[in-house]
Write a structure and sequence with these properties.
Blueprint: E1 4-5, E2 20-23, E3 26-31, H1 45-62, E4 70-77, H2 83-93, E5 100-105, E6 116-123
Parallel strand pairs: 4-5
Antiparallel strand pairs: 1-2, 2-3, 3-6, 4-6
Helix pairs in contact: 1-2
Length: 125
Amino acid sequence: MTPYPVNTNLPASKSPLAWATVGNGILFTAQIPIDAEGNVVDGGIEPQIKQTLANLKHTLESAGTSVANLTQVLIYVTDRDDLAAVNREYATFVAEPFPNRAAIIVSGFARAEMLVEIVAYAVVP
């Protein structure tokens, strides 16, 4: 299967990228805490992780899959102290059997106001 971009109807990126691509039955996606207008949500890590997870759910559904079909989730945060809030929200987002997951602390993102980014892989049935 030739990889193809998923039409998520999320705001256009300011960078040369697709929000999600499907290839060989696997969805590859990266999500950030932007609202419908393309602005990074403010208010700290809790609104940002909620928005990022909402964008991820929307993207999964746009690709014809769901949270239940996630196979791997990589969560990048800029502050180790934010992991407790991230874990609380993430625990409401996924159910058993849980996908493989890693949390990575980074020094920053391309958009300085971002505190979190998620890269995820899911099966597209």
